[in-house]
Amino acid sequence: MRLGLIGLGRIGAFHARTLAALDAVDSLVVTDAVPAVTAAVTAEVGAEAADSPEKLIAAGVDGVLIAAATDAHPVLLRAAVAAGLPVFCEKPLAAGLADARATAASVRGARVQIGYPRRFDAAFLAVRGAVAAGELGRVHTVRSTTLDPAPPPRAYLAGSGGLFRDCTVHDLDAVRWVTGQEISEVYATGSDRGDAMFGELGDVDAAALVLTMADGSLGLVSNSRYNARGYDVRLEVHGAADSAAAGLDGGLPVRPLGPGALTVAGPAHTFFMDRLASAFRAELAAFVEVVAGTRESPCTVDDALAVAVAAEAATISLREHRPVATAEIA
User: Fold this and answer.
1) Cα-based distances in Å from 180 to 132, 215, 243
2) How far is 195 from 204, CA to CA, in rounded Å?
3) Average of pLDDT values for 324-330?
4) How does pLDDT run across 63-96, given as a tens digit for each residue?
5) Which domains, and CATH codes, for the chain?
6) Degrees, nearest 5: CA angle 252-269-89
7) Where does the record place the Gfo/Idh/MocA-like oxidoreductase N-terminal domain (predicted)?
8) Are residues 139 and 236 in contact, defined by beta-carbon separation less than 8 angstroms?
């Protein structure tokens, strides 16, 4: 098949390499807002270059992948769907909830997959399987962690929608997906004790959330832009009969201390494309199946919208210092 890729930043360039290596992909067309970036990626992976997203969509592609800046997602997603093409779009649907709702409504029913790679991580899949099989008994607590080694650039943060919409959404999606439960209430707190840019942008660099799920189980989420030891992505599910965890591997960026402490083989994961490389590849392989018509979308616009609602609840909770029910927003 012939695929098109819009946006060639750090994740877009990684996707280009992954797609070029897939047997099912015969040709790849790429474009970026910066022509020099398009030229560099084209030369590296042997892709064709398009001058614009519009020309790429019209280049006879069988499907489109969107890895452009967040604020471009709604327009690009609508354009690709209007052309009758299956679309993979990196999260989030849009920078704000109103745009996310409008975008979801305009493309609902089309073949659209939203990028939440933890759904394709082998350990996360195993934990979800254990929950679904009833191996843990009644689930009472889920803990999800995303700690970045260092903040992204200011320009990226300014268009990201904030920590909850850019980072926390991965935890919100993982908790919802692994448990099979909707998030009914969010209480969030955060701080901006790092670089002054966070306060200047109205953002936080660390956050903690308490989630109440539809069945009464609890979720605990921890996020930070400062975790110098490495990129820390973990999930723990605790049930009345057993507990299970994902992310406790040899690259765990934690230093266990005390007699008899676990030994971490190392080296520590340093970036999301290190920790989740195999998950990203599996995610794109799944999209190839969506394009081929042999698989339904494994992460729909409605999944992404549910996460956007929870992220909005977190944003309001932080601002108003109170628990916020998602029903207030949805």
Assistant:
1) 8, 10, 16
2) 10
3) 92
4) 999 999 988 999 999 999 999 999 999 999 998 8
5) 2-110 (3.40.50.720), 119-275+306-329 (3.30.360.10)
6) 115
7) 2-112
8) no
List residues bridging with 64 in a β-sheet: 4, 87
User: Per the confidence metrics, is the pTM higher than 0.90?
Assistant: yes
Determine contact, residues 220/189, Cβ cutoff 8 Å.
Answer: no
Q: In what order do the strands lie in the sheet with 243-246?
A: 243-246, 232-239, 139-147, 218-224, 206-213, 183-191, 324-325
Cα(97)–Cα(324) distance, integer angstroms: 15
Number of Cβ atoms within 10 Å of the Cβ of 70: 20
**What are the DSSP E strand ranges found in the chain?**
2-6, 27-31, 48-49, 63-66, 87-90, 112-115, 139-147, 183-191, 206-213, 218-224, 232-239, 243-246, 324-325
Q: What one-letter code names the amino acid at 72? A: A
C-alpha 9 chain-centroid distance:
15
Nearest to 114 by CA among 304, 311, 293, 294: 304
Q: How far apart are CA 258 and CA 275, in angstroms?
A: 26
The answer for residues whose C-beta is within 8 angstroms of residue 190's C-beta and 6 or more apart is: 163, 204, 205, 206, 207, 208, 318
Tokens read off for 25: 């992909």
* Angstrom distance (rounded) from CA 187 to CA 210: 5
Q: Give the rounded percent of residues in the chain with a pLDDT score beyond 90.
A: 94
3-state secondary structure of 181: coil
pLDDT of 330 above 80: no
